[in-house]
Amino acid sequence: MSKQIAVLMGGRSEERDVSLRSGEAVAEALRSLGYRVLAIDIGQDIRVTLDEIRSDTDVVFNALHGRYGEDGCVQGFCELLGLPYTHSGVLASALAMNKAVAKQLFVNAGIPVPDGGVFVRKQVLDDEPMERPYVIKPLNEGSSIGVHIVREGEESPLENRGWGYGERILIEDYIPGRELTVAIMNERSLEALEIRPTEGFYDYRSKYTKGCVEYLVPAPIPNSIRDDVLRFSLLAHKTLGCRGVTRADFRYDDSTGGLGLRLLEINTQPGLTPTSLVPEIAAHAGIDFHMLVNWMIEDARCNI
After folding, report:
1. Residue 299 catalytic?
2. Is 208 an annotated catalytic residue?
3. Residue 186 within any structural domain of the chain
4. Burial classification of residue 200, based on how many CB atoms lie within 10 Å of its CB (0-12 exposed, 13-18 middle, 19 or more buried)
5. Is 35 labeled as catalytic in the residue annotation?
């Protein structure tokens, strides 16, 4: 009898819609591969849901994004219940989701990152910590949610009472230039891809709307930069203790050569939608979507 795979999707984070799209694509691929699939739109009590399915489930495919899905919470429940699961474990997931902590670990490992730090919202409103343009980021969100470039003459979103991402904010130098990303699979950097939005920067809307972005794979960059970006990606993956499939995001200011390369973050739960980057890079490396998903099932495990 084929394995039963529980595909967790949806959830309560602001990335719910993206998670549903990832989960649906994964479930369809798994069914075509002959697995028995239980697609679950996660509600309020994740623990109860997992406890109810554990006797009939061989592997949990975690297609959740954002809080509670990729920050170590679901991973912890799977560990306690002895359910093998895809992607990174508890600690790596929690570290990657906390941008400030991950950034310090990258610095310690010798990986170049943007200058900046964590500030309290009131402190920023009273006295901006760096010259514009700079980037503000919530500490624990993905998919560029809440990310904003503060430019000269613009009102900061922190002045808006509707800011809903907490009082502590990560502020970094704005790195002009190009957007690069690398897929890491099976402890190997597959390839670098360049992202070229048709307008603006690579925000939440452009990430998940067809036609808003041009993808170039392999990225048209010098071989020396390609070597660096692949090396730093794998080093970041290993520094946090990640496993399975991850994605590392960079900015590259080609006006300054190699000095302009900066790691922004590593994503332990990269999207698997029709417009997502990891499937695009994997396809270039000869790994189609079905092969990618099947490998993730075979790689699933508990860390203990």
Report:
1. no
2. yes
3. yes
4. exposed
5. no
Read off the pTM: 0.89
The one catalytic residue among 19, 143, 189, 206: 143
Residue 15 is among the residues annotated as catalytic for this protein: yes
DSSP state of 198: S
Per annotation, catalytic residue among 14, 15, 71, 194:
15
Rounded distance, CA 176 to CA 153, Å? Answer: 18
Would 193 be classed as within a structural domain?
Answer: yes
Which H, E and C letters describe 227-269, residue by residue? HHHHHHHHHHHHHCCCCCEEEEEEEECHHHHHHHEEEEEEECC
**Tens digits of per-residue pLDDT, 60-102?**
999 999 888 899 999 999 999 999 999 999 999 999 999 889 9
Domain ranges, residue 81: 4-87
247 is catalytic: yes
If one counts the domains in the chain, the total is 3
Are 286 and 209 in the same domain? Answer: yes
267 is catalytic: yes
φ, ψ of residue 33 to 5 degrees: the values are -85, -5
